[in-house]
Amino acid sequence: SASSFRAEHMTATTVPTLALPGGGVMPAIGYGTWLSKPGEVYAGTKKAIELGYRHIDEAWVYKNEAEVGKAIKEVIAEGTVAARADLWITSKLWQCHHRTELVREGCLDSMTQLGVEYLDLYLMHFPVAFVPGCDEAVSADQMDDVPIEDTWRAMEKLVDEGLVRHIGVSNFEIAELKRVQAVASKPIACNQFETHPYYQRRELFEYCQSHGIAVTAHSSMGGGANAMRKFHKSPPLTDDPVIGEIAAKHGTSPHVVLLAWGLRRPMAIIPKSVTPKRIQANKDEVLALQLDEDDLAKIAGLDKPGLDGCYCHPRTPWLGRSEFTGDTKHYYG
Predict the structure, then answer these.
(1) Is 332 assigned a catalytic role?
(2) Is residue 85 exposed (0-12), middle (13-18) or buried (19+ Cβ within 10 Å)?
(3) Which terminus of the chain has a lower count of CB atoms within 10 Å, N or C?
């Protein structure tokens, strides 16, 4: 429960864990790798593991799994960690691999790039499918009609085969979780979705909590500089005056306040940085910060309606948030 999580971990410097359905625990602080520039994610991953991170969050579509794989191989060879089993590695199935005959191929491609013999967690990245070979659908005819139930059943076979320890989803709403739950023979271990003080997703979070689905938050710091920044309705979350006031009170940064809020909810957080000092702060300062009831009440009041607080895919057509135009100019880049 949230209360036992707090009591056990509020003063600990070790990274807390989240229990997963069906057994197993996931480190609640991971290293994020989305939108890292070539070359940077290798050094960042290596530094994160040296600084005590044991959870790496990856995805096929990030196009940098080989760099992360190189870092993993080196930290094991150098003795920073004793073995692969000491690391928690998540990856995600991209939309072009949703057909049941392509799910295994998508998984194996990620595993090959990462240089691992199994994944700890494999997520369906979005509840939509693209035609095979398409990385980004810019027209309706590039969408593929593959039910998420079929893709999930194919993912369950990866567990049976020993390629994957746990399976879950990402960016799923309650209705889509229910569709998977209706056919699942293995539990949904995790739902990774955007959530932070401007986009709190209370109903979705509570549904996951009540069904034993662990939550990993992405875009915890608001993603104010991400590839969709031209289309954000809100200014950067790190500039919020309430968050700034709480940070000043505790002698820390807005980034640390935002991450601590997520961790204490409780959720897993996967901050991305390539700066060693920030990588360390995103773990150690976050673990040290104890937000009080007054802080939490103020943050609770920051939630925004609809997609007003959404920084990740606020206008993406393949999520039904705009029309297809044949390119990405109106929603990305």
Answers:
(1) no
(2) exposed
(3) N
Instruction: Say how far apart CA 197 and CA 247 lie, in whole Å.
Output: 14
The rounded distance, in Å, linking the Cα atoms of 88 and 57 is: 8
Quote the strand ranges of 13-87, DSSP E: 17-19, 25-27, 31-32, 55-57
Chain CA centroid to CA 170, Å: 7
Q: What are the tokens at 55?
A: 């959870």
Identify the H or E element spanning 248.
helix 241-250
Name residue 31's beta-bridge partners.
56
Active-site option among 31, 42, 53, 62:
62
Is residue 88 within 8 Å of residue 55, measured between CB atoms? yes
pLDDT digits (tens, 9 = 90+) for 116-155: 999 999 999 999 999 999 999 999 999 999 999 999 999 9
For 29-82, write each residue's pLDDT tens digit: 999 999 878 889 999 999 999 999 999 999 999 999 999 999 999 999 999 999
For residue 241, the surrounding DSSP H or E stretch is helix 241-250
Across the chain, where does the E strand assignment appear?
Answer: 17-19, 25-27, 31-32, 55-57, 88-93, 119-124, 129-130, 143-144, 164-170, 190-194, 214-218, 268-269
Q: What phi and psi, each to the nearest 5 degrees, are found at residue 189?
A: -75, -30
Q: Check whether the bond before 266 is cis (ω within 30° of 0).
A: yes
